[in-house]
Amino acid sequence: MVHEQGAKLCFTADDRIFLGEGLFETLRVVNHKPCYPKAHWQRLKKAASFLGLALDVSFEVWLEKLNECIKLHALQEGGIKAILCSGRAPRGLSARSKETSLTLIAFQYIRNSQPLSLLSVPWLRDAKNPIYQLKSINYLEAIIARRHAEAAGVDDALFFNFQHHATETTIANFFIIKNDQLLTPALHCGVLPGILRERLLCLGKKQGIHCFELELLKADLLQADAAFTCNVLQGIRPIRAFDNHVLNVNHPLVTKLNHFLALDEP
């Protein structure tokens, strides 16, 4: 496992990373500590197993290396990007690498909690495509969608699948609030199993909030009392507008959820 200050990774021409085969996790660091390290480790292990990538790192070693990285860079607030590279292999799509590498990159990060605007992505996703449930290094679709949104003067884009069910934004899961209930797209819609998404569902249920994972249409978002995106780095960000439809950014349930997260044991 390697610690890097910034993007200094070097690859040979036959490295599988040039075919987009690789995984990553982005952890938030608060008060010199990594947030939700076990959940990130578990998700990375599961994805690596699916792709057949070796990740022979116990949770104890994972946590030790994260803390070493934080200490090495004197990181009080920010993040760590953990990149699992697939390594070198013979030419061919089905070829497999025998050696993988895990690199930790520390970075500074200041949260932007300002409400954001979204628009619908002008193409649809296949919910059965397994890549959408992996934290893959291949972000080309998200890059194209984000640039499309910004060219239209909007902050981010929301994907829909072939059944016209909402899935996620380019970098975050999303929720809507309706009648004080918390609703989010089900994983089978083609959604990344986000760490903060899962925490919000668990915390909400513990606090007696009705939480549902289901199929959400565009009409559901337009009729929502409020909506927000979430990921571990950004936290909760209210959605102020979707496809030019204005939404409430001051819903009391969002305030409660932020309070629950502040008390959550990372």
TrEMBL record:
GO terms for molecular function: 4-amino-4-deoxychorismate lyase activity. Keywords: Folate biosynthesis, Lyase, Pyridoxal phosphate. GO terms for biological process: 4-aminobenzoate biosynthetic process; folic acid biosynthetic process. It catalyses: 4-amino-4-deoxychorismate = 4-aminobenzoate + pyruvate + H(+). Its cofactor is pyridoxal 5'-phosphate. Pathway: Cofactor biosynthesis; tetrahydrofolate biosynthesis; 4-aminobenzoate from chorismate: step 2/2. One of its GO terms (cellular component) is cytosol. Pfam families: Aminotran_4 (PF01063). Its EC number is 4.1.3.38. Involved in the biosynthesis of p-aminobenzoate (PABA), a precursor of tetrahydrofolate. Converts 4-amino-4-deoxychorismate into 4-aminobenzoate (PABA) and pyruvate. Belongs to the class-IV pyridoxal-phosphate-dependent aminotransferase family. This is Aminodeoxychorismate lyase. The lineage of its organism: Bacteria, Pseudomonadati, Pseudomonadota, Gammaproteobacteria, Legionellales.
